[in-house]
Amino acid sequence: MIAHAIVFYIFSLIAIVSAIMVTVSKNTVNSVFFLILDFISISCLFIMIGAEFLGMIMLIVYVGAVAVLFLFVVMMLNVAQQKNEWFNSSGRSSHIPVGLLVSIIIFFELIIVIGGWKYKPDLLDSIAIEIDTDLTNTQSLGTVIYTDYIHLFQLSGMVLLVAMIGAIVLTFRQRSGVKRQSYFKQISRDRKDGIELVDVENNKGVKIDA
Amino acid sequence: MAELFIFFEQIYRILFLLIPVLVSVAMIVWLDRRVWAFVQKRRGPNVVGPFGLFQTLADALKYIFKEIIIPASSNKVIFILAPIVTMTLALIAWAVIPFSETFVLADINVGILYLFAVSSLGVYGIIMGGWASNSKYPFLGAIRSAAQMVSYEVSIGVIIINVLLCVGSLNLSNIVLAQKDLWFVIPLFPMFIIFFISALAETNRPPFDLPEAEAELVAGYQTEYSGMMYAMFWLGEYANILLMCAMGSILFLGGWLSPIDLFPFNIIPSPIWLILKILFLFILFALIKAIVPRYRYDQLMKLGWKIFLPFSLIYVVLTASFLMYFDLLPGN
Q1: Is A3 on the interface with B (CB under 8 A)?
Q2: pLDDT tens digits, one per residue of A97-112
Q3: Sign of CA dihedral B81, B83, B89, B91
Q4: Contact indicator for B202, B153 with CB cutoff of 8 Å
Q5: pLDDT given for residue A79 in this prediction
Q6: Where are the domains of chain A?
Q7: Higher pLDDT, B84 or B261
Q8: 3-state SS class at B298
Q9: Is B247 part of any domain?
Q10: Residue B106 to residue A64: CA distance in whole angstroms
């Protein structure tokens, strides 16, 4: 049990320190790398409490896909310079109240949740679904999501679809004058379309573009 | 005391797995060059050791004694971390590969998700290396490679769903045991082909080696690397290729199972079968490197998003409907 606790504290320490480093570090790319470290240590924590499916999905979705896109954008836009300018400018104080407000709200929400859990133990009995400890958590998630909560599941799918279509519509632009390759056109071309035999008269030449 | 014993036993088991993997990575580099040479009617590396088997060791020695050059304008921490990340990720994935029913380092419930997660993290080594070099060609190579790997991961994920539908478990040993009667390569043959091609793209192998297309990008993300750091990228890349071959043989070719459960075949120990299957897939990889010309970048993206992804999605629907209709769904 002691080994368990030690490992837990190592991971949570890494998670907290890297979360702080995300906001503190001057270089934006370094921030994203710390964010990735944070994601990884949180997924390790998930695995430690036995939620291995959540932990792996966290790795695949957040670290494997979302953070890659983050990195992409940050590296391409060269935000590092912008941020430094912003730090030095006089207008920076206007952002602090907003951030403070958000963090205070999150802090109180956490107090309510954790306090309720701590001081009113019968709150745990109000969970909607019995937890079956025999099943692996992949199976138990599947049996819940695809039966009782199928509508919510499909609804979230619809939200994602709308977001996807929205992103495509926002970024799609039809450029004119782009030469596209069509395999079918290339393959279905035959000799008759490509080659023409012409008798050239002396001193007259041939009009090719006709 | 007992905990200490478990600790050392685990370390022993990890070493027992990692050292053969590293040695086979060295051998596989030799095999790759040999196959490539034979296709082109050359001899390939044949001087160092019997059949040139120790060529890779000689190369590795050379890399170890070369100077490591760190560009002055690079981001040094990330520059040094990048090859370490590549190498580590390529090696930790082997923890879940089952070599037989009992011989597996970590028989975890979500083995296939772990493999998928680790292989999708592999892109970080490349992006970090390309960005930290602070140079144009490595950065272009890294961006290309990241886009390519993310795109082909999607189709690999969908292909894995196909297999999982037939198995009903995320555990790699269960995936192999489900193929006792019929390897999945037969009912899911189109998926096997797509998996193979996606694996080529995922590991940046030819014909999809655009990140290091030497005609356009010098050597892609590795341009600024030298000495041992380059060698680590290189070893990590080949370990990843071996891993993809192992994944293919576990998902489709029945893992450690022998092809026929009859006398002369079933006395051969099961790890040998897995190794033979990995080698078979690897030789296909090497042959394709020698035979197929490099894709253009837009063709690569078109293939991944417009052909592979829709096709494998349709195949998921087909597989699910088939299993549902004939009441073959696994599990309860």
Answers
A1: yes
A2: 888 899 899 999 988 8
A3: negative
A4: yes
A5: 52
A6: 1-88
A7: B84
A8: helix
A9: yes
A10: 22
Q: Is residue B51 assigned to a domain? A: no
Mean pLDDT of B161-165: 90
The size of the A-B interface in CB pairs under 8 A is 64
Selecting from A3, A52, A59 the residue whose C-beta is nearest the C-beta of B109 gives A52
Average pLDDT score over residue span B105-115: 86
CB-CB contact of A39 with A59 (8 Å): yes
Considering chain B, what is the average pLDDT of its residues?
86
Predicted ipTM? 0.81
Option in B110, B127, B146 nearest A138 (CB): B110
Q: State which fold the A1-88 domain adopts.
A: Four Helix Bundle (Hemerythrin (Met), subunit A) (1.20.120)
Tell whether B68 is covered by a domain. no
- For B303, which DSSP code? I
CA distance A94 to A72: 28
| Chain B nearest C-alpha distance from A125 (Å) | 28
* Mean pLDDT, residues A57-86 taken together: 75
Angstrom distances, CA of residue A196 to CA of A190, A191, A206, A207, B276: 12, 9, 12, 12, 56
Q: State yes or no: cis peptide before B207, omega within 30 of 0.
A: yes
Local structure of A94: helix, strand or coil:
helix
For chain B, what is the domain count?
A: 1
Interchain contact, A36 vs B139, CB within 8 Å: no
Instruction: Give the Cα separation of B4 and B12 in Å (integer).
Output: 12
Which domain covers residue B307, as residue numbers? 73-325
Question: Which one, of B65, B70, B67, B95, lies nearest residue B81 by Cα?
Answer: B70
Side chain identity, residue B99: F
pLDDT of B264-290, one tens digit each?
A: 777 778 888 888 899 999 999 999 988
Q: Which two tokens stand for residue B161?
A: 């769903």
